[in-house]
Amino acid sequence: MNLQIEQMNVEDLLKISQILYSDFDNFWTVETFKQELENPNTYYVVAKIDSEIVGFGGIYQILTEMQLNYIVTKKEKRNLGIASQILDNLISFANNKNIEYITLEVNEKNTNAIKLYEKFGFKQIGLRKKYYNNIDNAILMQKNI
Ligand SMILES: CC(C)(COP(=O)(O)OP(=O)(O)OC[C@H]1O[C@@H](n2cnc3c(N)ncnc32)[C@H](O)[C@@H]1OP(=O)(O)O)[C@@H](O)C(=O)NCCC(=O)NCCS
Q: To test ligand 1's pocket by mutation, which of 26, 56, 69, 79 has the most ligand atoms within 8 angstroms of CB?
């Protein structure tokens, strides 16, 4: 698999705008996502196989903390190691900045994502009860850099 990770730009977003909801479980509007990409405190990457976008992920920097905003793999390409490569790139980016830790929150029912994060050394540091739709709990996780 010839997978490449590149910094994401607005052109990439426009290429997948029609399939954001169906193929990437995305919940942002294209306009909100565009503002995210243009925010100087964010860093987003796309994973491409040849020229096909098969995943993306991004982080938001606040002083010495980075928050993992989102990471997703295209539905038909899951469990092939794509999110692992995206996360590896985001962690390398944090390593090259003055970052002390990366935090994230994840639905406690999202076991695939939790396994991915644990594989990269994230540890549970807290729980937000009924955080999602006033039903599901959110697990807070952190990785020290
Ligand atoms: C979570 C998600 C990003 C994983 O993407 P992926 O490309 O399939 O992940 P990888 O192939 O790199 O797998 C990474 C690890 O996750 C775990 N994992 C992923 N899919 C799994 C599955 N179907 N069953 C069991 N474990 C799984 C494994 O631990 C795996 O590591 P391993 O293969 O070395 O054992 C993907 O399922 C997804 O896009 N989900 C919807 C969006 C989402 O929930 N994002 C996270 C919250 S923001």
A: 79
**Cα–Cα distance, 14 to 142 (Å, whole number):** 32
pLDDT digits (tens, 9 = 90+) for 40-98: 999 999 999 999 999 999 999 999 999 999 999 999 999 999 999 999 999 999 999 98
Protein residue closest via CA to atom 16 of ligand 1: 116
Q: How far is residue 64's CA from residue 61's CA, in Å, rounded to a whole number? A: 7
Domain boundary assignment for the chain: 3-144
d(CA 24, CA 3) in angstroms, rounded, equals 17
* Ligand 1, pocket-test mutation among 112, 117, 120, most atoms within 8 A of CB: 112
CA–CA separation, 22 vs 4, rounded Å?
A: 23
- The closest alpha carbon to 86, from 108, 117, 60, 61, belongs to 117
Contact yes or no for 121/102 (Cβ under 8 A):
no
Query: Is the C-beta atom of 81 inside 6 A of ligand 1?
Result: yes
CATH number corresponding to 3-144: 3.40.630.30
